[in-house]
UniProtKB/TrEMBL annotation:
Protein name in the entry: Cellobiose-specific PTS system IIC component
PROSITE patterns in the record: PTS_EIIC_TYPE_3 (PS51105)
Keywords noted in UniProt: Cell membrane, Membrane, Phosphotransferase system, Sugar transport, Transmembrane, Transmembrane helix, Transport
Residue ranges of every copy of the PTS EIIC type-3 domain listed in the record: 1-334
Organism whose genome encodes this protein: Schinkia azotoformans LMG 9581
A biological-process GO annotation: phosphoenolpyruvate-dependent sugar phosphotransferase system
GO cellular component: plasma membrane
Top-level division of the source organism's lineage: Bacteria
Cited Pfam families: PTS_EIIC
Membrane association type: Multi-pass membrane protein
MF terms in GO: protein-N(PI)-phosphohistidine-lactose phosphotransferase system transporter activity
Location(s), subcellular: Cell membrane
Length: 334
């Protein structure tokens, strides 16, 4: 029951759903990384002009990922909060998205000398700050909307105009709170909220980025699945920031001609640790089909072989079953 409550936590779900909504940005930017740097493995290097040309779309997508995720996470959390509110008095998710993104910019982007602002912490380095912005914003909106701390317009005013005034107070309060947090941290530590969070958790990221960290993280995936709980829904929100931050670090290492040595990335998860689903079960359906003598297990293997190619291994987890099966526990964890 305890872990089920964790898996159903609306904040963890918001982080997960916010990332899922931002996946097109990640996948789109990955195309240009592949084109720009995969040929290096065969000794071919693009000219600097072409490399810059290829990496520009990356910089304007993955380079400001946290900015987007701040909005999508706020939207996901707003949807969860709205389930507890009357249908006639809902939070406007578009407004929470905008407020969260504005608040994130205030906490992560410093003004540039030549105008505009710096984007160093608007990418993967600013993800935790984006979550803070989203959580604060949506909770402020809920308090204001639930207690009618809004500007009400006459009924003959068009709904879209009325909604603007209804959102004005919660928008202002949430942004002011986030800006106040930024001023407090800046005045105390001399750096932005995003930079201070990055400095604070850097030792944790370094400690987790190794074989022991991988063992604990993906072992936790398997353990939760073993007891019948969706492991990624609990573990992924906790490691999302480090996995995508490490992608950015590895990219800069490659650009500098060095070895990409950050291990905990989404690539490690998808193509090694969880290939075919939690427990790396890609080969298991074939073992069931070709080696098992039981007709039942052969049928399960045939039914689950296609889903596991797409990382969906619930048919094998619950059909074998691997869940709550001590015989398969060691296999699932290792």
């Amino acid at each position: 029951p305890f872990f089920e409550k964790i898996s159903r936590n609306i904040y963890l779900r918001a982080i997960r759903d916010g990332f899922i909504a931002g996946m097109p940005v990640i996948l789109f930017s990955s195309i240009f990384i592949l084109i720009a740097y995969v040929p290096n493995a065969w000794g071919f290097h693009w000219s600097k002009d072409i490399e810059t040309f290829l990496m520009t779309p990356y910089s304007y997508s993955m380079g400001i990922l946290a900015f987007f995720v701040g909005g999508t996470t706020a939207k996901a959390l707003t949807d969860s909060k709205n389930r507890d509110l009357p249908a006639t008095n809902q939070i406007n998710f578009l407004s929470t998205m905008l407020a969260s993104m504005v608040g994130f910019l205030l906490m992560a982007a410093e003004p540039a000398k030549e105008g505009g602002f710096l984007t160093a912490f608007m990418g993967t380095k600013g993800l935790l700050t984006a979550f803070i912005a989203a959580f604060v914003t949506v909770n402020v909106y809920k308090v204001c909307v639930k207690n009618n701390v809004t500007i009400r317009m006459p009924e003959d005013v068009p709904p879209n105009i009325s909604q603007v005034f209804k959102d004005l107070i919660p928008f202002t309060v949430s942004v002011v709170i986030l800006y106040g947090l930024e001023l407090l941290v800046k005045g105390t530590l001399g750096v932005t909220v995003a930079e201070s969070i990055g400095t604070l958790i850097a030792p944790l990221f370094s400690a987790a980025d190794g074989y022991l960290g991988i063992t604990l993280i993906f072992g936790a995936y398997a353990f939760f699945w073993f007891v019948g709980i969706h492991g990624p829904s609990i573990v992924e929100p906790a490691i999302a920031a480090i996995t995508y931050a490490n992608i950015d670090v590895n990219l800069h290492l490659i650009q500098a001609g060095q070895h990409a040595d950050k291990v905990i990335t989404s690539g490690t998860q998808m193509f090694i640790a969880t290939m075919g689903g939690t427990g790396a079960t890609l080969i298991v359906p074939f073992l069931f089909m070709w080696i098992c003598k039981s007709d039942r297990n052969r049928a399960i293997g045939r039914a689950s072989v296609v889903p596991t190619f797409f990382g969906v291994n619930e048919p094998i987890l619950f059909g074998a079953p691997i869940v709550l099966n001590p015989i398969f526990y060691t296999f699932l964890v290792t």
